[in-house]
Amino acid sequence: EAGVTQSPTHLIKTRGQQATLRCSPISGHTSVYWYQQALGLGLQFLLWYDEGEERNRGNFPPRFSGRQFPNYSSELNVNALELEDSALYLCASSKDSFYGYTFGSGTRLTVV
Amino acid sequence: SQQGEEDPQALSIQEGENATMNCSYKTSINNLQWYRQNSGRGLVHLILIRSNEREKHSGRLRVTLDTSKKSSSLLITASRAADTASYFCATDAGYQKVTFGIGTKLQVIP
Question: How many CA atoms, within 13 angstroms, populate the side-chain half-sphere of residue A101?
């Protein structure tokens, strides 16, 4: 069974540009979660998608947005990039958080 | 904001020794989960303990949960160099709101 896949692995962008990160969940998982992990910090919850709908979002500005497609894959978009957006972005999927999450390997975004 | 806080933030032990990490949290939870992260990669789910459970085992891992003290501990017995990683606790307060701590960095010296 394929795990959670994220692309790209690394992404370098210039301040002010837009970044698009992608995530494919485990087959059968309808929920996708996005987290930001800045250097030396814990995981900060960004977004939760389920059945194509945004169900919850963390304390991030509106320039962080995303969507979930009919095949349950998801996209995270970050507009007007700032230097402090540099971080590891992790995607996870689950049937339900009752069972725990399966994480992808992450996308390391560097804003220069 | 962080719900869970791991303690200690860093731990260095010799191979073969036991490693104990603690997690404290603030609000009621449905379950508590422990994850491992190697070198800034994705997190690996280790074990989940529900709020009505007090202890759970998985291989060399033992997790305890004390809901009255709002704390949990993760014990890794007979540690190996391959156990070197960051360990995170995550609390599930319901409605898919899973919050992670800042982690404990474990170094196992061969």
Answer: 30
| Closest chain A CA to residue B36 | A103
Give the pLDDT of residue B96.
66
Give the pLDDT confidence score for residue B93 in this predicted structure: 82
What pLDDT does A73 receive? 97
- A and B: number of Cβ contacts within 8 A: 61
Tell me if A101 and B45 make a contact (CB, 8 A cut-off).
Answer: yes
A90 strand-pairing partners: A35
Q: What are the DSSP E strand ranges found in A9-86?
A: 10-13, 19-24, 31-37, 44-50, 53-57, 64-68, 74-78
Give residue-wise pLDDT tens across range A20-73: 999 999 998 999 999 999 987 789 999 999 999 999 999 999 999 999 999 999
Measured CB to CB, residues of chain A less than 8 Å from chain B are: 4, 6, 31, 33, 35, 37, 41-43, 45, 48, 50, 55-56, 59, 88, 90, 92, 96-106, 108
* Token reading at B90: 């995550």
Q: Which of B2, B41, B96 sits opposite A31 (nearest CB)?
A: B96
